[in-house]
Hints:
The complex is a heterotrimer of chains A (82), B (243) and C (740). With 82 residues, chain A is of the alpha+beta class. Chain A has one domain: Mth169, Chain: A (2-Layer Sandwich), CATH 3.30.1280. Chain A has helices at residues 16-27, 51-66; strands at residues 2-9, 39-45, 72-80. Chain A has a three-stranded antiparallel sheet with strand order 2-1-3, with helices on one face. The longest helix of chain A is centred in the last third of the chain and has 16 residues, at 51-66. The relative contact order of chain A is 0.33. The mean pLDDT of chain A is 92. Chain B has 243 residues and is α/β, with parallel strands linked by helices. Chain B has one domain (2-233): Rossmann fold (3-Layer(aba) Sandwich). Chain B has five helices and eleven strands. Chain B has helices at residues 14-24, 67-77, 87-95, 151-159, 218-232, and strands at 3-7, 29-33, 44-47, 81-85, 101-103, 111-119, 135-142, 146-148, 163-168, 187-191, 197-200. Chain B starts with a strand and ends in an 11-residue tail after the last helix. Chain C is α+β, with helices and mostly antiparallel strands. In chain C, the strands form five sheets. Chain C has a seven-stranded mixed sheet, with helices on both faces. Chain C starts with a helix and ends with a helix. Chain B binds chain C through residues 9-10, 12-13, 15-16, 19-20, 22-23, 35, 49-51, 53-56, 106-107, 109-113, 139, 141, 143, 203, 205-206, 209, 211-213, and chain C through 145, 148-149, 152-155, 237-240, 242-243, 329-331, 415-424, 426-427, 429, 438, 440, 443-445, 557-558, 739-740.
Amino acid sequence: MKVRVLVSFKDSVLDPQGQTVTNALHTLGYAAVRDVRQGKVFDIALENLTKIEAQALVPEIARKVLANPIIEKFDWQFIEET
Amino acid sequence: MKFGVVQFPGSNCDWDAFHVLRNVLNQETVMLWHKDHDLQGVDGVVLPGGFSYGDYLRSGAIARFSPLMREVKAFAKRGGHVLGICNGFQVLLEMGLLPGAMLRNRNLKFLCQHVHIRVENARTAFTRAGQKGQVLRIPIAHFEGNYYAPPRTRAELIRKHQVVFRYCDATGAVTEEANVNGSLDAIAGIVNEAGNVMGLMPHPERASEALLGSTDGRVIFESLIASFARRKTGSGGKPKGRR
Amino acid sequence: MIDDRVLAEHNLTRDEYDLVLRLIGKEPSLTELGIFSVMWSEHCSYKSSRLHLKQLPTDGPRVIQGPGENAGVLDIGDGWAVVFKIESHNHPSFLEPYQGAATGVGGILRDIFTMGARPIAVMDSLRFGPLDNPKNRAIMEGVVSGIAGYGNAFGVPTVGGEVYFHDSYTLNPLVNVFCLGLARKDRIFYARAEGVGNKVLYVGAKTGRDGIHGATMASAEFGKDTEHKRPNVQVGDPFKEKLLLEACLEVMEKGLIVGIQDMGAAGLTCSTTEMAAKAGTGLAIDLDHVPQREKGMTPYEIMLSESQERMLLVSRPESVAAVQAVFAKWDLDAPVIGDVVPGDRLTAAFKGETVVDIPVRAVVELCPAYRRPSRPPLGTERRRLHPEPPVPADLTEVLRQLLASPTIADKTWVFRQYDHMVQVNTVVLPGADAAVLRLKDGRRTLGKGLALTLDGNGAYVQLEPRTGTKIAVAEACRNLACVGARPIGVTNCLNFANPEKPDVMWQFEQAVAGLAEACRAFGIPVTGGNVSFYNETEGQAVHPTPVIGVVGLVEDVRRALGPGFRRAGDVIVLLGGTKEELGGSEYLRLVHGLEGDAPPTIDLDTEKRVQEVCLAAADRGWLRSAHDLSEGGLAVALAEGAFHAARGTGCVVDLAAGIRSDALLFGESQSRIVVTTTATRRKALLALARAKGVQASVIGRTGGRDIVIRLDGADVIRLAVAEARRIWKAGLPKALRARS
């Protein structure tokens, strides 16, 4: 079983790295790019767990460890359900 | 006063803090290992600077889960003095013993240089040997020193006088230029509501010997030592963070 | 099976292969061939340089360990020893600037702590192409971030170094990293697998497929699907290295190990064979016990992997449990992977079969040493091909240009990214002529201190290799004299192009001869170093660039000198004389676009005497500041004196015309130091210089808010310190188009 957790800054928090990437893309001529937010990807391999248990466990570890709830938000999905 | 300096895997200013406390200020000092559960009866805990766990994930994010930190949390709840320097401050933030969070420096680079900080609150256990408005020349060395707090937290910090230090220029003026890492309100150090836990990004242990260029950092340690001595002799109650 | 194509891919000549056959008495397996390939490579065997390096002076009363081990060791008294070396990581830094530089730092740190020394300082010597080329900017940003990222996390201060820009480095950046550590002199550890019956332990990171070059063919020895998984440049893990440091120092302190070697270039292959060869023993290892982070690794891959942050330890059987307990405390594994055995062979087992069985001496000591053909490049008979360049009318404008040029401009952009204060020992911070560290011994600070500097000038060496290299050594020692330190030892990193080309080989020979001559003149031993050949890409070769690292001692660390003017009204004295020589100078290159035909001249005897005057005066407390003259000459040195002055104090200097004014102001004549002293000490200082046969003249006074230089009474330079400082500070950030 594999899940993917995406962690990024909350919208209200300044993301200078994302801003730098945006500027770089504009410099290279990609005017269509309006904004970039940079984040982190955690691919987590789980074992001996049911899907329901995973649905409880993943948000818990995301909230407790992977993201800092003061400044970060997270989202997650299954990438391998067995 | 007996001090304990906590060692996490990757801490690298631990022996610097130990050196200043024991050799320069002649205080009894022990090292506290992150896996232990024993605070060895210390009167004050110092969380030193460095790169605990390589700053992987987030600075201080993993160190806060150490077995010893459970004891430090209880110690702080009982009113024990805890000083977090740089990475130590980051650990306190991650643990929630201090409010707010750290972001990357505004210029996205590591910054190692002398800065000036102004004492905003001279009534804490960590600053009572100094004066409000006093300017201290102390070095910083960090990648993630850009302090952030959501609006409500920020308002409380100001209301309860929990801001202890702000970045300023040599004359004491808080300017955009002096705030090299871009911290909210140029905040360099804060104390908790009860006034017994303080975190600051600058390194006072690097400004405690004339040979190295500045002794302005000593006031923080000396304040702590004096506060503890006062407490021991029973004069005054718990040091407070507010006026 | 082993045909010419296989040999070519393994970088072995047919003659070398025939020698291998003779030495081991059989046809080697592919793994064994890989072992010879990597151990007989230029980088590991020094086959093109070994013979020439023999002429370097390596003995001295302080020498505890000279070249031949992981690093050199010098006795500094009070029971302490310094362990230091310099290494290069040039090509990886071109491929992947951040990780290339980071792993370069990691490698040199391990070379130091494997000897039992805690690293207390790092310096870096960096050379990039001009910053108007975005590729060079990207390389510089990556390299500086990489060094910072690794060194800062590990917890060692990066206290000094140099940064140069020249077109010859555009496709060949040079990244040389120096490290110095402190050890108790009676507790130095060596890379020797002593004691038959002792156990061999592997500690640190797991082994992956990092850095296995050369083998692009599909073969039975390679998993068919490994191609795309093989990383070319390793990713450094400074956190892991810090844990490794603490665990290793702890087992050393507890006396639990008898030998230790880090796994750097050629990984397990190098550490096993070298440790056995040095001890005169054999080693038997089981590859199944080597911790692996990839599935299905072959013996070839395991033996040749260059995964970082790994060490090989040898310890007595009864100590193994204690060693493993220490490593477990630091969250590291320390499995036993083999034994020290009688004989002189390395054997390795894999899934029950012996896959390696070779004599270690063949691998480590019997690689042929070559005396490659050498010939000076055509056109060394210098002719003035161009008319003499005119002296510019506005010399103040020239000074502005020099101050803004990246090679001369303020380097704060670089060293602000390095934690240069961790370990609370740094007394003289980056930006001065040399770094100065205090030494803590238990509860006290020792009176003496360490001084360190790195110096080199590829342009001079390109013009005249022997002279240019002598100058590099002289300049390093001069920089030490300017902080009040006397040199005690040398390490060197020799960066050259392809040694199979006779003119490159000639440059190398000349440089080594110059290095030997200068070190002998200063009485300082070479304790070790590094040779980096093949620094050339797409036909463009680097300037031959020896980088010299010199370590010195300051008697009283509280009295270390700096370059900045201390107060208005001090007397400025120039020690040494100025000749009309502009060749190789930054001024000639920047303003006239010329390299010149010869570097400045150097007379080592004069140089020594000038340094002696500076040191003697410093010892007596007569000097308020001292600064050596190098790129940009006298005018830049005076400006720098003002920039480092506490209150932006300027100067007023009067010179007598004689030689060309641009040579007088910006020429890079050697053996010159500008010092300031009080009015009362002036006479004594001049008398001291006279007694030592050193030319010395009062040239002016500190004071005012401008840098003023007059020639025969007329202003030739008048520039406000504030304006000059602004230009100097903005030079590098502007060139990098950085925001802060």
